[in-house]
Amino acid sequence: MIVKHFNLKVPMAIGEVNAYVCACETTREAMLVDAGILDPAVVAYIEENHLRLTTVFVTHDHPDHTAGADDYRQKFDAQLVAGTPTVGDFPVDRVMAHGDTLTVGTLEARAVSTPGHTPVALSLIFGGVAFTGDALFAGSVGGTGTPENAAMQIAAIREHLFGLPGDTVVYSGHGPATTIEIERSYNPFFV
Fold first, then answer.
1. Within a domain: 132
2. How buried is 190 (Cβ within 10 angstroms: 0-12 exposed, 13-18 middle, 19+ buried)?
3. Which strand ranges, in their side-by-side order, compose the sheet holding 101-104?
């Protein structure tokens, strides 16, 4: 599996926003995880590596992760996939729910529900890799508006992410990559 990280400068965001191109080495089919802005570096990487972007996956509906989603959909004739029927002002092509699967070439991913930061949020799990959006970060979790939402998010992470193998790499919406084992052992929200 090919995973390429991009650090986007999204105008409405404070600090960096992560986006990832995930691709099948065999078929060259690719997916973009979160699309804060149509970035020339992302487009160049897809084109220069002869990838075929077929899917734009949105972990949660916040503009710093979605503002470029429809631009990528149109540029690459890709399907927009999310846990909600719309992303920003745009309808999605496929609404996923907890337990649904998504294929990218020969790769298969499973969606798991990780709400709290937003009412609907999905993390996408490939073998050995988890794209967690703003649910789980290296050393932190996504901000929530109420104690109830915080408790829901912590419970979802424990139930749906912390059961993964410890060496599973966590790619989040902001900040550096980490692993499930590091977060289970040292993240202050869980220790």
1. yes
2. middle
3. 101-104, 107-113, 122-126, 129-133, 169-172, 178-179
Of 39, 22, 30, residue with least CA distance to 125: 22
pLDDT at 172 over 90: yes
**Listed residue (108, 101, 52) closest to 81, CA to CA:** 101
3-state secondary structure of 37: coil
| Amino acid, single-letter form, for residue 182 | I
Q: Is 60 helix (H, G, I), strand (E, B) or coil?
A: strand
pLDDT at 15: 77
Residue 191, in any domain of the structure: no
Which band of pLDDT confidence, cut at 50, 70 and 90, is reported for residue 10?
confident
| pLDDT tens digits along 100-131 | 999 999 999 999 999 999 999 999 999 899 99
Look at the block and give the residue holding tokens 């920003």.
88
The pLDDT of residue 27 is 98
Structural domain including 12 reads 2-186
List the one residue out of 135, 120, 142, 144 whose CA is nearest residue 170.
135
* Six-digit token string for 179: 């692993």
For the chain, what is the domain count? 1
**123 touches 131 (CB < 8 A):** yes
The reported pLDDT for the residue numbered 139 is 97
